[in-house]
Amino acid sequence: MPKKPASTTPAATDDPKSASEVGTQLMEDWAREREAVESAEASRVAEVEKVALQVREKLLAEVAALPLLPGVYRYFDAQDHVLYVGKAKSLRKRVSSYFHKDHGGTRIGLMVARIARLETTVVRTEAEALLLENNLIKALNPRFNILFRDDKSYPYLKLSGHAYPRVSYYRGSVDRKHRYFGPFPSAWAVKESIQLIQKVFRLRTCEDTVFNNRSRPCLLYQIRRCSGPCVQACSDDDYARDVRNAERFLLGETQEVMDGLQALMMSHAEALQYEQAAEVRNQIQSLAKVLQQQAVDESSATGRDRDVDILAVKVQGGRACVNLAMVRGGRHLGDRAYFPKHVDDATAVVLADDEGPDEASRPQASAERQVLEAFMAQHYLDAHVPALLVVSEPVDDALAEALSSQAGYKVTAQAQPRGQRRIWQEMCIKGAELALARLLSEEGSQQARTRALLDSLDLNVAEIDKFRIECFDISHTAGEATMASCVVFEGHQMQSSQYRRYNIEGITGGDDYAAMRQVLIRRYSKLAEGAQLGTARLPDLVLVDGGKGQVSMAREVFEELGLDLGLIVGVEKGEGRKVGLEELVFADGREKVYLGKDSAALMLVAQIRDEAHRFAITGMRAKRASARTGGSRLEDIAGVGPKKRAQLLQRFGGVRGVAAASVEELASVKGVSRDLAEEIYRVLH
Q1: pLDDT digit string (tens) for 320-361?
Q2: What percent of the chain has pLDDT over 90?
Q3: How many whole angstroms separate alpha carbon 167 and alpha carbon 195?
């Protein structure tokens, strides 16, 4: 049979010309693909630029149509999130200053580049613009405005409208039925004032229900802190006089009170009523001692100095502090520090904003002044403002006018005080410096703890300020009212507004593993779906309070949901369950890690773990209490102590199970006699 001729087709790899042609073809294809991509990208960029140009042209047209009147303006981005709220004497001049100059890569330039639309509101006066601006800032929380936390819940000292008025601590809305003194900067200041009134004027502090049912005076009467009106140990006239004197003392009329008491003492002495004169003398001595302990020179605390707010501001390291000190009735009551948000961005925008053409005659405001003005506007909005404000920085006259218009009387902001006011101002400035230094130190240590934990666990996080931990704990009482908690740590601090509690149902009482499985599924099943779609964010670390068992359960859940096992870390108690000996257990097979009892990382883990436990146990107790009414509570039954109660709950799986058990079943529990079983059955039925 003849042999087949060998193939004459050369291999591609053996033909240099063919390889060259193939390479050329590949290069041409790659060039065409690259050209197409670049063309598409150029088209996309051109389209974006076209849209941006259209938006800017539309904004410029709107700006040109704005009136030369006072008002408030709002900037929004493409997602319709509010960026900035500002006020202006002339809307057209102020708003046009943002768009008719090149701000470069500054913060205000970044903000202007994000503006997609604007809204304006015309008002009659600059004072109205100021009030509307701060109403909107508080409601909208803009990204480029200085924002203070809305905290108007100041404590008061309350004198009840009773025939024998009671002095007490009060927080909330005031009414006309009672008399209120304050506000005070802190609960401590109120309680100190109550103690002074008890010592000097001996007014009662007991509840009305206690007062109405006393048959003999209480211990406060014995130690001379109450005059005993509940058992008529003092006359009605004497108690009423003490109430009037206490009111005058709180209003700052201390010299008048002293003069009145001295006159009363002399009248008793002239009438040979030496015991009554001695009582009044003791009262005068107590009041004199109190006045000597005051840090304020009472002789100068007259007129407008009776009620004064002192405000000092300090800006450093990208943070700011406004310290507010209160003088009421001539008495310095203490101070409170406030720390605003958005300071860097907001002050940069505001300082550039002040360069507008309508502000040419106004001296450029410093960052301190802007922070102080923002605080004054937001803090005193719809709140009581004293007639005199001593400030550490001069503020805009329009702000004082707006506050005066709102208060109905003239409000003066004094930046260069003398005498006693100067002393108050210096004290307040020092307080602001110390408070800000403490905040910066604490934030530095908090960041150091976060960094120590990341280093200990060898975690790589792009932005440490956004590092997020979620921690879970299970709490119940012998299987009853099982509650799971999830607490969140982010931004170097606990985020209480993001805490969540989960009622655990459908499991065997006391099965912590099943409870942990349920809470993790409920927490992460939807988050896992959202994370895949890019609409939700998973935490960077998931802590579970427990050792290998809880970690194994968490690993099963994460495997079912397709989540990274490296996120899970268990906090296992050490030998003897002693604090500082905890070890970290990992779900991805890594060896246990002991951080060391003095480790900053362990301190952070322990803080988060303890917070999860606290949040779980408080929720469990509230749930348990709400499930019980009246006499159905086991602890109210005589003969049922903590041990027997725990045994009953464990045996029958909770209060409902105990209530459903028969007398014979109850008596079968160790330590429960037949008589006790019958009593339990009777109470629960």
Answers
A1: 999 999 888 777 888 889 888 888 777 777 655 554 444 444
A2: 16
A3: 10
Q: Architecture of domain 303-437 in CATH?
A: 2-Layer Sandwich (3.30)
Q: Quote the pLDDT of residue 257.
A: 77
pLDDT of residue 300: 45
The two three-digit tokens of residue 117, written as one number? 């639309």
CA distance 309 to 403: 14
* Best mean pLDDT range from 42-51, 334-343, 603-612, 662-671: 603-612
* pLDDT tens-digit series, residues 498-541: 999 998 888 887 888 999 999 999 999 888 888 777 778 889 99
The CA-atom distances, in angstroms, between 429 and each of 339, 421, 423 are 14, 12, 10
Q: What is the DSSP string of 280-348?
A: HHHHHHHHHHHHHH-SS-TTT--GGGGSEEEEEEEEETTEEEEEEEEEETTEEEEEEEE--BSHHHHHH
- Kindly give the residue spans of alpha helices, DSSP state H, lying in 497-536: 512-533
Task: Measure the N-to-C terminal CA separation of the chain; round to a whole number of Å.
Answer: 109
201 touches 242 (CB < 8 A): yes
Highest CATH level, class, for 51-140: alpha beta
Report whether 138 contacts 127 (CB < 8 A). no
pLDDT at position 355, please?
Answer: 47
Taking residue 10's Cβ as centre, other Cβ atoms within 10 Å add up to 10
Q: Which of 629, 616, 646 is nearest to 504 (CA)?
A: 616
Instruction: Give residue limits of the domains in the chain.
Output: 51-140, 156-293, 303-437, 464-626, 630-684
CATH tag, 464-626: 3.30.420.340
Among 274, 280, 248, 247, which Cα is nearest to 261's?
Answer: 280
SS3 for 148-180, per residue? CCCCCCCEEEEECCCCCCCEEEEECCCCCCCEE
DSSP 101-129: S--TTSHHHHHHHH--EEEEEE-SSHHHH
331 closest CA partner among 426, 433, 190: 190
Provide the β-strand partners of residue 500: 486
More confident residue, 285 or 188: 188
108, 352 in Cβ contact below 8 A? yes
pLDDT of 415 strictly over 60: yes
DSSP states of 244-256 as a string?
A: HHHHHHHTT-HHH
DSSP strands (E only) in 12-94: 71-76, 82-88
Instruction: Assign domain 630-684 one CATH number from 1.10.150.20, 3.40.630.30, 3.20.20.70, 3.40.50.2300.
Output: 1.10.150.20
Please state whether the predicted TM-score (pTM) of the whole model is above 0.90.
no
Q: Matching CATH topology for 51-140 and 303-437?
A: no
Mean pLDDT within 377-399: 86
Q: How confident is the model at residue 654 (pLDDT cuts 50, 70, 90)?
A: confident
Of 336-350, 489-503, 604-618, the one with minimum mean pLDDT is: 336-350
Q: Identify whether the C-beta of residue 91 lies closer than 8 Å to the C-beta of residue 120.
A: yes
Sheet holding 412-414, edge to edge: 331-338, 319-328, 308-316, 388-391, 412-414
Q: Could you tell me the pLDDT band of residue 304, with boundaries at 50, 70 and 90?
A: low
Per-residue confidence band for 291, with pLDDT thresholds at 50, 70 and 90: low
Region class of 405: left (phi > 0), else alpha (psi between -120 and 50), else beta? alpha
Tokens of 657: 């199970």
